[in-house]
Amino acid sequence: MKASVVKCLLAGAAVCMQCSIQAQPLVEEVRSPNVTGIKLYKKTDQLLYPILRLGETEGMELHFDDINNSSRSYFYTYVLCNADWTMANVSNMDYIKGFTQTRLNQFRFSSATQSKYVHYGATLPAANSMPSRAGNYLLKVYEGGDTAKLLFSKRFLVVNQKATVSARMQQPFAPEYFLTHQKILINLNLGNQDIMNPAKELKVMVMQNNRWDNARMLSNPTFIRGRTFEYSDEQQLVFEAGKEWRWLDLRSFRLQSDRVASVNYNVQPFDVRIRPDTIRSPIRYAFYADINGRYAVSHIENINPWWQGDIGKVHFTFLPQNGEIPNEYNVYLFGEMTQYQLNEQTRMKWNDNLQAYETSILLKNGYYNYCYVTVPKKNPSALPSMKPTEGSIWETENDYRVLVYYTPFGSRTDELVGISELNSRVFMTGN
C-alpha cells in the first residue's frame, strides 16, 4: 500500500475519532479526591444557578477546598457546548474574549479550624477572559496549566434574551402519572424572528431543581399558532414529582442539631454520625419549606465559613422498611452536596450486620438538602427514581427552568435566547 494512501486512511481515522469524541456530551465531574465543597453560583446567593447575561462580568462566584493543605497552581477555562452539551464545533478564540485560560490567584489557608485545607475562590468571569457568545458553558479547573490534569468541571449558562417564554405546571392526565408526576406547559414567541424549520432551529430544554440528569430536550413543538410555539407533550414534559427533600443542619459540629447522632472530635476530619433515615414512600405527603436539593455553606460561630468552616466525614445510614430494597436496585445518596453524581462514593453499601445501607462523604459546615434514589442494576443509565425510597406525590413543591436555544441556518452553535423559571406550588389551588 502506498504511503500516501496510508496517510489518508490515518487522517480519516483521526477525523472520525475526533468527531466521535466531540459527539459525547460533556458532563460535570470531580476527578480529584482532594477537592471538596465545590460551589458555582450566581453572585451573592448560593442557592441561585449560575446564569449570566451576555457581556456580564463578575456575575458568578466559584468556591472549593483542597484538603492537600498546600497551595497549588490551578487554572480555569471555558468550553462552549451545544444545547445537548456536546462540544461546539468552533475554536475557543471564537467564544472567549481575552485569555483562554486564567490562573486562580485567590486562595486562603483554613483559619480557626481543626480541619486543614486551602480554600480557593474566584469571581467569574474576569474582564480579561469573557464568554462572547450565548449558550451552554463548561467551566474546567485544572492543575499547572495542563487541561489533562482536570480537578473538576461545572456547568453554567450565558443568555442573550430574545424570546418571550412562559411556562406553567399542571397535573398530568395520563393515569400512570396522575398522582405522582408534574407536567410542564410552554409557550414560546421569538417576536419578528422568522422560524422556517422549528424542528431544526429551535430546541427547548426543561430542568427540574437545577438537575441535568433528568432534563428534557424537545425539538418539535406540539402546536404552532402564528409566531407562537406551544410545547405540551404528555410524555417528554412529565417529571417525577418526588417529595420535599430531607434536611441536615451542619452549621456547627460543636452545637449539634437534632439530626446529628454523634461527633468524634479526636480524629481529622471529624467523624460525624447522622441519625438513621427510613423509607418515606408509605408516609402521607406533608409540605414543608426546603431548598430543593441544594446546599449553602454556613457557620453559626465563625465570621467567614469559606475558610473558617470545619470539614467532617459525615456518615449516612438508610434503613429499608421490612428488609432490604430488592436486589435489582442500587441505592444512592443524592443532591447538590454529591454534585448529583451516581458513583461508588455516593452508592449506599449494604451492611448485613446492621441490615442497612451506608456511605460517607466529606461535608463542610452548612445547611444541606438530600434524598435517596434508586437505579436498576441492569440499566445503570436509567433515570434515578425517588419513588421506592422517598415516594412521589404530584403536589410536591419543585422548581423548574425552561431554556430556549436558537440555531439559525448555517450557524455552528446553539444560542441560548430565552429563560423562564417557575415554582410548581404557585399553580396549585389555594397556594
Which key phrases capture this entry?
431 residues, mainly beta, Immunoglobulin-like, 6-stranded mixed β-sheet, 31 strands, globular
Task: Please provide a written account of the structure.
- By secondary structure, this protein is mainly beta.
- The radius of gyration is 23 Å and the shape is globular.
- It has three helices and 31 strands.
CATH class wording of the largest domain: Mainly Beta
Tell me the major beta sheet.
6 strands, mixed
Structural class: mainly beta
CATH architecture identity of the largest domain? Sandwich
Distance between the termini: 75 Å
CATH topology of the largest domain: Immunoglobulin-like
Please work out how many helical segments DSSP would assign: 3
Q: Report Rg.
A: 23 Å
Would you summarize the structure shown here?
The chain is mainly beta. It has helices at residues 3-22, 198-201, 305-308, and strands at residues 29-30, 35-42, 51-53, 60-66, 74-81, 96-98, 102-103, 107-109, 118-124, 129-131, 135-143, 150-159, 164-170, 181-189, 202-208, 211-218, 223-225, 228-231, 238-240, 246-249, 260-264, 270-274, 277-278, 295-297, 311-319, 329-334, 349-351, 356-364, 366-376, 399-406, 415-423. Strands 1, 3, 5, 7, 11 and 12 form a 6-stranded mixed beta sheet that branches. Strands 21, 22, 23, 25, 27 and 28 form a 6-stranded mixed beta sheet that branches.
List the helices and strands and how they pair.
Elements: H1 3-22, E1 29-30, E2 35-42, E3 51-53, E4 60-66, E5 74-81, E6 96-98, E7 102-103, E8 107-109, E9 118-124, E10 129-131, E11 135-143, E12 150-159, E13 164-170, E14 181-189, H2 198-201, E15 202-208, E16 211-218, E17 223-225, E18 228-231, E19 238-240, E20 246-249, E21 260-264, E22 270-274, E23 277-278, E24 295-297, H3 305-308, E25 311-319, E26 329-334, E27 349-351, E28 356-364, E29 366-376, E30 399-406, E31 415-423
Parallel strand pairs: 3-12, 22-25, 23-25
Antiparallel strand pairs: 1-12, 2-4, 4-9, 5-7, 5-11, 6-10, 8-9, 11-12, 13-14, 14-18, 14-19, 15-16, 15-30, 17-18, 20-29, 21-22, 24-29, 25-28, 26-29, 27-28, 30-31
